[in-house]
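[audit] Reproducing an earlier prediction to check determinism. Same input, same settings, fresh worker. If the tokens differ from the archived copy the diff job will pick it up downstream; this log only records the rerun itself.
[audit] input (397 residues):
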Amino acid sequence: MKTYECDVVVVGAGPGGSMAAKFCAQGGLDTILIEKKAEIGAPLRCAEGVSKKWLEEVGIEPNPIWIRGDMKGAIIKSTKGTTFQLDESKAGSEVGYVLERHLFDKALAKDAAEAGAKIMMRTSATDVIRNAEGKVAGVKAICFGEEIEIRAKCVVAADGYESQVGRWGGIDTTLDLNDIDSCIQYRMCNIDVAPDYCEFVIGSVAPGGYVWIFPKGDGVANVGIGVMGRLCKGKADAKYYLDKFIAEDHRFKNGQILEIMGGFVSTCPGLDCAVDDNLVLVGDAARIIDPITGGGICHACRTGMYAGKVLTECAKTGDFSKKALMAYEKMWRGRMEDKLVRNWMAKEKLASLDDETIDQMIVFIKEANIGEVNVYNLLKAVKEKFPKLVEGFEDLI
């Protein structure tokens, strides 16, 4: 069996994996990045919307090659038709870009390669390798039909929602049904939507989730939906709700579907622990994703960067134990955990509200004097008007 030796093997060339590989390679580590698919970033499994402010934080320079739309703001709408439109002066960090995600992912992988990482395509991990002490020591994989081993001092699991590497490594990645959203998205053309505002519709049109419309120019947009798993009954699945929404909105009467994608998103506030001896989980694999929006690109990039920086330090002492890797836990929790927990609890509350209450909230938010409109500031305002909606997590607001 062909065997490769390296310092770090990263499984998955999404944003989290490519960022981890880049920062490991920049730190002087011999890094291999494996990707099971034939093309990085495809097929699409993303709504492609991101905010802007975090890009500088992780060292990503905005590039027109992968930016399809530069949004002026956002529209929040209730099922009763109440609309709250925010421009950039109000929306702040919630305003962003609509990406060409496959080009974005390729750009990050290119950065990793230029930093010195070796990329192996069509290479699918099949298990972890364990040493004589029973600790993770690399991965087994199939590369173009050939069984191989990649032995490494540490494995970075960046294999997304399915998170097989984490499970093989002994980390419990099980999700409660409440923390799983079923999603489907159409790329549609010939539709009449605002060209430079992302739209979010909340309420019974999408039980426990929301409908999104992310414009991509020329009458094209990503039109999708996420619904909470436990609220889907019988045939009332995500496709049913999305088709119903489209059929009842005149803006889509001449629309045609160019592409369909579907999948699941985790909406919990992260794993109890995302590291073990010689093993680090990043991004979706670690369940580090915004529970209220389902957005995970920025979280993947941040955690990938943190993993690369911590592994660079670990390499200086040769210690990749769980204890040494807890520095990664401290990094991501210090930067994101409070927000993730707060948004998770808000997600749970939001799922229990009827359309009338949601409409009242949007009316209130429209009339309230909120500076920068983000989830935190919205919850602060809601706390004053609807205190029962934030019971149990007031201390996080």
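[audit] rerun output stored. Observation attached for the diff report: The radius of gyration is 21 Å.
[audit] end
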